[in-house]
Design brief:
The chain is mainly beta and 335 residues long. It has one helix and 28 strands.
Length: 335
């Protein structure tokens, strides 16, 4: 009897010890990230937790916020308030989600790109007669310079390694190439009709511009500064995000509620993903194989598994306490 007891006790101890060992190869939950979404209809930024897919905070900003960009080093978020009567960039500290400053710009800012190493922000000025890119010193939060580009500039992407910026001119149907050392336009590249969003792929040394009116994406070689290909996508392409980790570019098609997935090696569409109504903004979490898309009319954010190229969830944006209108989301960024 004593022997049986000892054997049972030993087995119990062994079982507990084995259960206490770490399980190698088990999938760990991804670290939570915060997703920031501008709501043009109610002048706020929604903060979504990437693990729970729930809104965890709301930050009041300026009038009609559109594009958004985050400095990963400082954690400061920059929000373009595009209404001509406002025309500012809100600065949010993402560590506390508090509004820290407002930067006055020329009337009608629309999109923003950062050069964190240079501590500068570049904002496209889209109002009639403006036609320039504003340069903001992020140390002083002041506009210090501007560069004249084509008519109605919209999207902007930066090649930090070569100190270049690429700007879509939506009326001229061109892309301006700016040398950021001299702040001058060094090339003007003809593309398709009404180019809007633009993205740069460092790995492929290519720029991708969404031509809204012809359902095509222009591919630009940055060495020659020439368009080398047009890729057919969905209706009314708006913004583009690139993922150099899987060599794919993602294009929001506002007119038919889809995202086109382009293989950047072959320059061909390999997948079309259904999302919410009127998708506009898009950002990529390459490490966790996710894309996040703002659905402007659907008033939601679609979450895409970029490994499977399917929508796996949709976050409905909620009303703010002082508004019965939920938002019309536009820009989106990840911390």
């Amino acid at each position: 009897m004593k022997l049986k007891y000892l054997m049972f006790a030993g087995l119990l101890i062994l079982t507990i010890a084995v259960m206490s060992l770490p399980v190698y190869g088990a999938e760990e939950p991804a670290p939570a990230r915060n997703i920031y979404v501008t709501n043009t209809g109610n002048n706020t930024v929604s903060v979504i937790n990437s693990n729970s897919n729930q809104i965890i905070d709301t930050v009041r900003v300026g009038v009609h916020p559109t594009d958004i960009a985050i400095d990963p080093a400082t954690g400061f978020l920059y929000v373009v308030n595009s209404n001509p009567g406002d025309s500012t960039v809100s600065v949010i500290d993402t560590n506390s989600n508090e509004l820290k400053a407002k930067i006055k710009t020329a009337k009608g800012p629309i999109n923003i790109a950062l050069d964190p190493a240079a501590n500068l922000a570049y904002v496209t000025h889209n109002r009639e007669g403006g036609n320039k890119v504003l340069i903001i010193d992020l140390a002083t939060n002041k506009v210090t310079n501007s560069v004249k580009v084509g008519k109605r500039p919209f999207g902007i992407a930066i090649d930090t390694a070569n100190s270049k910026a690429f700007v879509t001119n939506s009326v001229d149907n061109t892309v301006s190439v700016i040398d950021l050392n001299s702040n001058t336009v060094v090339a003007t590249i003809p593309v398709g009709k009404h180019p809007l969003g633009i993205a740069f792929s460092p790995a492929n040394k290519k720029v991708y511009a969404a031509n809204h009116n012809i359902r095509k994406v222009s591919v630009i070689d940055i060495k020659s500064n020439k368009e080398i290909k047009k890729i057919r996508v969905g209706k009314d392409p708006w913004y583009i995000a690139v993922n150099d980790k899987n060599n794919m570019a993602y294009v929001t098609n506002r007119g038919n509620n889809t995202v086109s997935v382009i293989d950047m090696k072959t320059n061909k569409v390999v997948e079309i993903i259904d999302v919410g109504k009127e998708p506009i903004g898009i950002t990529i979490d390459a490490e966790n194989k996710r894309a996040y898309v703002t659905n402007h009319k659907g008033i939601s954010v679609s979450i895409i598994d970029t490994g499977k190229n399917i929508e796996i969830d949709r976050v409905k944006l909620t009303n703010t306490p002082d508004s019965s209108y939920a938002g019309s989301p536009w820009g989106i960024a990840l911390k």
